[in-house]
Write a structure and sequence with these properties.
Elements (H helix, E strand, L loop, with lengths): L11 H33 L3 H14 L11 H4 L2 H9 L2 E5 L9 E6 L6 H7 L6 H4 L4 E6 L9 H7 L3 E2 L2 H8 L6 E6 L2 H5 L6 E5 L5 H9 L2 E8 L6 E2 L7 H13 L6 E2 L17 E5 L3 E2 L8 H24 L8 H8 L3 E5 L18
Parallel strand pairs: 1-10, 2-5, 2-7, 3-4, 3-5, 6-12
Antiparallel strand pairs: 7-10, 7-11, 8-9
């Protein structure tokens, strides 16, 4: 295979965009291990005056990721995030005005490999979020695992993410006055293993937690779909039942997070590496739904609500793909959504839409 190298006369802005994304990918893949190694070395070499104060403070600060986190507008406004956003580029599209007197759950799909769209739109000050949703604060919920790593947790919280635990989501949704948004990547680690270009496999039907939280706190549900998320990386083929997929699923159960084996382009060439492809990401927020059920919610009611929510999410995305009233959207968005021909809604192992009695997401 002939290696295709990047030209030498690339504008400085594009080089800075590449550098911004490179540091983010390396931070995602390696920074937690580096931070853990630092604390271990401090203990081994007995720098007690450094690690004892920090670990003492960490003990008292342990619950912060479940109590709204500790975001920093200074970190979120770093110029590096503007270059990060422009690399793909990332665009946020609003289709409906939201009332800032209410709280909302943004059900984000798809997970993709590294959830680039969710980070770019909700964890930096360079997205269109503040202009499109004035008076709102978004909290991206991520795995609690990331907040157990010393030092790394501080860096992560500074850009806005909080834990995805029930306690953390409740903390956001029960805030008085409204204007708070819990952004939850509903498919989670399972969905990342099916993040292949040209294909959307959505894990929705067995996700009951976000419906319970919406009912408990009277929050509105907003489906959010990120077109282009699955185009950023290629994964080594891991069909259901293969030895690789079996190993990945077992590791996921043990560790709590998935390990997709992905690749894309490099820094100076386009054939291989861990840098994502320059593909546009269009993150679209759809119509808000209010789940109103008085009193206690029994299991049967909950099952119906989960099915209704799956129908809401799938039909909303399907309508976005086909309906004429979305004609005002930008042409790049139309191209992005039309390039995906495989839509699968699953509640466990993926299966063909044709044999699925539940809402069909296929868009041929």
């Amino acid at each position: 295979m002939k290696v295709e190298f990047a030209p030498l006369n690339i504008p400085l802005a594009r080089r800075l965009q590449t550098a911004a994304v490179l540091q983010w990918v390396l931070s995602f893949l390696l920074l937690a291990q580096v931070c853990l190694g630092i604390i271990v070395l401090l203990i081994i070499y007995n720098y007690w005056f450094l690690y004892i104060p920090y670990l003492t403070w960490l003990y008292f600060d342990w619950q912060t990721p479940e109590q709204g986190g500790r975001r920093s507008d200074w970190v979120r406004s770093w110029t590096i995030w503007r270059y990060f956003k422009d690399y793909f580029p990332i665009q946020l599209v609003k289709t409906w005005d939201l009332d800032p007197s209410h709280n909302y759950i943004f059900g984000f799909h798809p997970h993709g490999v590294l959830v680039v769209g969710a980070f770019g739109n909700f964890c930096t000050n360079y997205s269109e979020f503040k202009e499109l949703f004035p008076g709102f604060t978004a909290y991206l919920h991520v795995l609690p695992f990331w907040f157990r790593c010393p030092f790394f947790r501080e860096y992560l919280m500074s850009s806005g993410p909080v834990s995805v635990s029930k306690k953390s989501v409740s903390h956001v949704l029960r805030k008085k006055g409204g204007g708070n948004i819990s952004v939850i990547v509903l498919g989670g680690a399972e969905e990342s293993l099916d993040a292949h270009p040209g294909k959307f496999t959505l894990f929705i039907r067995q996700r009951k937690g976000f419906v319970k939280m919406a009912l408990t706190h009277g929050a509105y549900l907003v489906p959010v779909f990120s077109f282009g998320e699955n185009e950023l990386f290629k994964q080594i083929s891991n069909p259901e039942g293969s030895w690789l997929r079996t190993v990945q699923e077992k590791l996921q159960k043990i560790m709590g997070f998935a390990l997709p084996l992905f690749h894309a382009r490099g820094i100076f060439q386009y054939n291989f590496g861990l840098m994502p492809y320059r593909k546009p990401i269009h993150t679209v927020g759809l119509y808000p739904w209010h789940m109103e059920v008085p009193g206690l919610v029994f299991e049967l009611e909950l099952q119906l609500l989960v099915y209704a929510t799956a129908t809401w999410s799938s039909s909303s995305i399907f309508d976005l793909h086909h309906s004429s009233w979305q004609g005002w959207m930008l042409n790049p968005l139309s191209k992005a959504r039309d390039s995906h021909t495989s839509w699968i809604l699953v509640g466990g192992p993926p299966h063909p839409c044709s044999s699925d009695p539940a809402p069909n997401l296929r868009a041929d």
